[in-house]
Amino acid sequence: MMFVFAARPREAEEAPLPKFSPELRFVFAAARIVGMGDIARTQLQRAGAQVRHWDIVHRGIAHHGLIGLAVPALLRTGALPSPVLATLHTEHAAHVVGVMQRLRELVRINQALDVAGIRHLFIKGIALSVQLHGDPLARGGRDIDVLIERARTRDAEGILRELGYELPIHASPADPNATEPPKESGWVHRESRILVELHDRLCDNHTLLPWDFEMLWAERETVMIAGIAVPTMARRRLPVYLAVHGIRHGWQRLLWLVDLAAVLDHHAAWDDVLDDAAPLGLDGTMLHVAWALHHWLARPVPPEVLARARRRIDVRLLNRLVARFHDGPQWYEAQPRNSVRRFIAGSVWSRAITYVMKPTRAFWGRQLAFDLSSPQDRAAFALPARLDWMYPLIRPFGWAIRRLRS
Q: How confident is the model at residue 155 (pLDDT cuts 50, 70, 90)?
């Protein structure tokens, strides 16, 4: 199926902003201005006229990961008070320094893995910034994510130790009896405190996105970073992967949606992504992305795609669930660890989103087994194999013990 559509020159002004607080509406307008320039400037001015607390706007722009992408454009608009512009300018300078530090580490890690003959892909972060936006400073990311072939995971961990990385002292203990280890491990540099996450698969539940490393490696692309060819995920695979990641977290960083706007910027991309998503059972997920890009970022989407999204119950449910992450007090900051708000967001709304994303029996069965059996519980309470059925009963107590210890 081929979709043909054309963006209207005043599309951004005609698409109303979400019905959130004035400060959050301004942040949405700031996200819209990325890649759209003067088209969104009028709406940015209108949103600014409603703002009461500019300090919240500043914190919201940082929280949504828009310092690298949106601040350069905002500095040229004059839509913010001078003190806020000065603060954002300072934070952008700090952002540049942070990206350059992570860029240096990415090059070091890439070279060390190449020398060891370990196949790897850098996902998200700086590699994605170059791939989608043509600039390592556009987004940068807060850590370095590396997808490693599973058979060489231990070798990759040894290389990170040689480069000065170590596991945090609060890292969860490994479960020696686990049939499937966690999909990632986090490593922190002793001096710079840069975080590197080693992944052996894209999702904890492999049935959500069942792409194996061999396929991703065969299709890989390379981007040039500091004169070095760095392997990364093929652009064709990015929309579904970025959507799965962003939706599960309720688009808590609008940066993730801006990334999708960059890759789904023409009608052929929509043809390809819907063809790729349908066999995976993720077509509703991508139709929700179409809704979010149109209503939240005012990006042009094929009318036929939006019509399909309006007819789907699962899409309408996803639309409502992700909105819960952007409504209410303190939307502009991460919820405190072990807080009730963080528990509700992670254990209620995020889990609900995960099940709605892929309403298939195979996925739900695997996800229920995963949710009812915590790896932390298995590591803390080593039960014989014949008593595996008890882990779902232990989980509430394990959760309470971990929170009380914290």
A: very high
Q: Is the predicted pLDDT of residue 26 greater than 50, yes or no?
A: yes
Asked whether 203 and 182 are in contact (CB, 8 A), the reply is no
Angle at 347 between CA 342 and CA 352, to 5 degrees: 125
> For the segment 198-238, what is each residue's pLDDT rounded down to a tens digit?
999 999 888 999 999 999 999 999 999 989 999 999 999 99
Q: Residue ranges of the alpha helices (H) in 179-323? A: 213-218, 238-248, 254-263, 267-280, 283-297, 303-311, 313-323
CA distance 328 to 286: 26
Residue 135 CA to residue 151 CA, distance in Å, equals 33
Give the Cα separation of 308 and 303 in Å (integer): 9
**For residue 339, is pLDDT > 80?**
no
Alpha helix ranges (H) inside 66-144: 67-77, 82-116, 125-133
Residue type, 31: A
Beta strands in 161-204, from DSSP E residues, in sequence order: 165-166, 184-189, 195-199
Cα end-to-end span (Å), the chain: 53
Note whether 66 and 84 are within 8 A (CB): no
pLDDT digits (tens, 9 = 90+) for 115-152: 999 999 999 999 999 999 999 999 877 899 999 999 99
Between the alpha carbon of residue 67 and those of residues 34, 77, 95, 98, 103, the distances in Å are: 11, 15, 7, 12, 17
- For residues 383 and 112, which has the higher predicted lDDT (pLDDT)? 112
Residue 250 tokens read as 């309720």
Would you say 88 and 72 are in contact if contact means Cβ atoms under 8 Å apart?
Answer: no
Name the nearest CA neighbour of 231 among 217, 243, 251: 217
